Amino acid sequence: GGQFAPDGGGQFESDCIGLLNHLRGGQFDRCLHQAINREIKYMHMDVSTGNINRALRFMDTLIKALKARGHDVIINGWSTNVIILNQSIPVKIRESYKRVLVEETPYKRYDNVSNDLLTFQLNESYCRNFWKDGKEKIEEKLSKIIAGLELIGKERYDREIERQNEKERRRQVYEILKAKRDIVQTHLSKFKEMLSDSMKYKKVSDMRAFIQAKQLGREEDKEVMGWVTWANDAVDWFDPLIKKEHPYLDDVNKETLEIYKMDWQYENWHRY
Question: Is residue 9 over pLDDT 90?
Fold first, then answer.
């Protein structure tokens, strides 16, 4: 790429739209920033003034090389992310420094002094992947850096595929278990209904025998026969084989023999 010029006289020919440099002069002065247009995106770099051009040229070359290999670089806010196999890998370039004692007082003061060594690394708190100046400059390690990033992207892609496969496997297991449980629940519900009906039927048989016994020899007693008529209607309502409608008992739960509908209406009379 071209030369970077703070006054706009040069042009940085990469796909990075903008740049935020944390500039720390020869002595890494604190909080000295140069920002280009606050409304655009920034590539975050942490280098001293003397290494700005070098860092920009390196990033320019790296980004173009990555794009030539079918990858992408996205700048989101102040974060630069390499996209490989749809995996976002945050990266940054920084300069290392050494601490130098500048004031000998009861409270010693140190400054961070540049040592002109650049490091390209993953911008993650648990980062263990980095390439730094040594016998070879990071520019000479460009192919190794790209290969390393592609390996990281492939590993993360494989882990994502593995997670997705495991998620799908667990979903399928859940669906199988749920289907089995639904079948069991259906049969259990039918069994409970049969058990309940058989218990009702037994009670119905007892009640019908009781009705027969009560009316025996009292067929001429109108009061008794009136009760027999009411009792037969009530038993027909309760009988699971007949389930006859009843003008009054239809508001009663046959399982608990408690009023449920009228109780709700009574408690919520003000809604009517």
Answer: no
Angle at 52 between CA 50 and CA 53, to 5 degrees: 100
Q: 19 and 82 in contact (C-beta within 8 Å)?
A: no
**pLDDT band for position 261 (50/70/90)?**
low
Residue 101 pLDDT greater than 70, yes or no: yes
Give me 75's structure tokens: 């700048």
Q: Where do the H-state alpha helices sit in 45-108?
A: 52-68
In three-state secondary structure terms, 33 is strand
Helix 222-238 to helix 142-215 angle (10° resolution) is 160
- Our CA dihedral for 107, 112, 115, 117, rounded to 10 degrees, sits at 140
d(CA 20, CA 60): 15
Q: Which residues contact 122 (CB under 8 A, 6 or more apart)?
A: 89, 90, 91, 129, 130, 152
Which residues is 46 bridged to in the sheet?
22, 94
CA distance 266 to 5: 84
Choose the weakest-confidence range: 124-128, 242-246, 261-265.
Answer: 261-265
pLDDT, one tens digit per residue, over 43-77 is 768 888 888 899 999 999 999 999 999 999 998 77
Q: Please, are residues 48 and 70 in contact by the beta-carbon 8 Å criterion?
A: no
| The 3-state secondary structure of 120-157, one letter per residue | EEECCCCCCCEEECCCCCHHHHHHHHHHHHHHHHHHHH
224/220 Cα distance (integer angstroms): 8
d(CA 52, CA 31): 16
Selection from 33, 62, 60, 61 nearest residue 47 by Cα: 33
Estimate to the nearest angstrom the gap between the alpha carbon of 209 and the chain centroid: 65
Q: Which two tokens stand for residue 201?
A: 């039927």
